[in-house]
From TrEMBL:
GO terms for molecular function: transmembrane transporter activity. It comes from Actinopolyspora biskrensis. The keyword Nucleotide-binding does not apply. The chain crosses the membrane at residues 47-66, 86-109, 121-138, 144-166, 178-199, 205-227, 254-276, 288-308, 320-339, 345-365, 385-401, 407-428. Residues 1-42 are annotated as: Disordered. Keywords: Membrane, Transmembrane, Transmembrane helix. Residues 1-11 have a biased composition (Basic and acidic residues). GO terms for cellular component: plasma membrane. This is CP family cyanate transporter-like MFS transporter. The keyword Iron-sulfur does not apply.
Length: 434
């Protein structure tokens, strides 16, 4: 049964919901179980107070690694494909890997975390990310593909679990820790795209340029491992079990609206991260400029992701925001479609602003649910299903280009997806709960 949401006063938990999926369910149950074994919420607070500084650095470094494996490759994708003699289908499938991994991780990460502990799983994932980014540049097309799958799988595990670590380890500083997390994530993606073409020139090839980003992953692994060793015994948060209470969200039109909105904005975002440099290069820009334009798109999200969540939660309904962001992105893509070289920086700024639908989608997950357990269930549905749907976008975008010989059809379809995103957002943005 739906009822009016209270959007005037929203706790910090609304800003921390990232790809936590079902891993965020039943946090109170987890604290209760810890208390029964002699380690309650107080030990988590003490961990945040004593070892929190190092853990916060680890969170920031881990977040900075959530995008470079994807954006660094996309900025030189054409050169990599030509060098390996790979086809357009290979590139299209490769760009779909991240969202597919995120969808699968929404199901598997909580299971692994309940068995081994969240901090340990994140640490192993960062180690795998480091190795995968090194191994994928050592062979041919199959090696690059396999290494990218492993790297994106590791990123997906971190993407799911780190926000839950933040919420459990910094219960009194959720807003601050989440701001650092989201800012580092956006900055990492921007830097990966902007600097990889330059690194390719300076280092003499794409292999060393892509391998360079393993240094950032190694730094995150080392700091994360050190933070885990410094944490007081029993303070490491463990993944809570999923709540089974409540009606099935599959029967809720609002839950499907939120899921559809999350899917559409994810589809658009990963098409941008996977293909935008190639679109700009086809229009006449150099590889370095194309990578820098993608970097600008991602950089725009740094300040917006910090200020947008508190702004939208103060409005009675978010439909205007969903439509406004989609319209802004549509304007940017129309510019690329009709006059790509007239004002490429302006088109990048408009697209980057429209990509801020991501933090808005996360806020909607919280606003459209009435309690923490319901938020986790809705997050699991929206993000697991949404990412799986979104994984078709980068593949089809590339296939359309390969079939038609231009980016026109791909861009028109993407504009259509944004129009659908706006329409679904009207329903998802209405002030009610599932």
């Amino acid at each position: 049964m739906s009822h009016e949401s209270r959007t005037e006063s929203v706790p910090d938990r609304l800003i921390v919901q990232d790809a936590s999926s079902t891993a965020g369910a039943g946090r109170n149950d987890a604290i209760s179980r810890a208390g029964e074994s002699g380690t309650g919420a107080g030990s988590v607070d003490r961990a945040a107070a004593t070892g929190g500084g190092l853990l916060l650095v680890g969170v920031a470094l881990a977040a900075a690694n959530m995008r470079p494996a994807v954006t660094s490759l996309s900025s030189v994708l054409g050169g990599v494909r030509d060098s390996l003699g790979a086809g357009a289908t290979w590139a299209s499938v490769l760009t779909s890997v991240p969202t597919l991994c995120f969808g699968v991780a929404g199901i598997s990460a909580p299971v692994l975390a309940r068995r081994w502990g969240m901090q340990r799983v994140v640490g192993v994932a960062l180690g795998l990310l480091t190795l995968a980014m090194l191994v994928r540049v050592t062979g041919g097309a199959a090696t690059v593909f396999a290494g990218t799958v492993v790297a994106c799988g590791a990123i997906a595990m971190c993407n799911v679990l780190i926000p839950v670590v933040v919420k459990d380890s910094f219960p009194n500083r959720v807003g601050m820790a989440t701001g650092i997390y989201t800012t580092a994530m956006a900055a990492g993606g921007s830097i990966g795209s902007a600097f990889t073409p330059w690194l390719r020139t300076e280092l003499g090839g794409w292999r060393l340029a892509l391998a360079t980003w393993s240094v950032l992953a190694l730094a995150a692994f080392v700091i994360w491992a050190a933070a885990g060793r410094n944490a007081p015994a029993g303070s490491s948060p463990s993944a809570p079990s999923c709540s089974k209470e409540g009606k099935s969200l599959a029967r809720s039109p609002l839950a499907w609206a939120v899921t559809g909105y999350f899917a559409m904005q994810s589809l658009v975002a990963y098409v941008i991260m996977g293909w935008l440099p190639e679109v700009f290069k086809s229009a006449g820009t150099g590889a370095g400029t194309a990578g820098a334009l993608l970097g600008l798109v991602l950089l725009i999200g740094v300040p917006i992701s910090m200020v947008l969540p508190p702004l939208v939660t103060r409005t009675n309904g978010q439909s205007v925001w969903t439509v406004g962001l989609a319209a802004t992105a549509i304007a940017g893509f129309l510019g690329i479609l009709l006059a790509p070289m007239a004002a490429p920086v302006l088109w990048a700024v408009l697209i980057g602003t429209g990509m801020s639908a991501f933090p808005l989608a996360l806020v909607l997950i919280s606003l459209r649910s009435s309690n923490a357990a319901e938020t986790s269930r809705l997050s699991g549905m929206a993000q697991s299903t949404g990412y799986l749907i979104a994984s078709t976008g980068p593949f089809l975008f590339g296939v359309l280009h390969n079939t038609t010989g231009s980016w026109t059809a791909s861009l028109v379809v993407l504009i259509g997806v944004l129009a659908v995103q706006a329409i679904i957002g009207v329903f998802a943005g209405r002030p009610r709960t599932v």
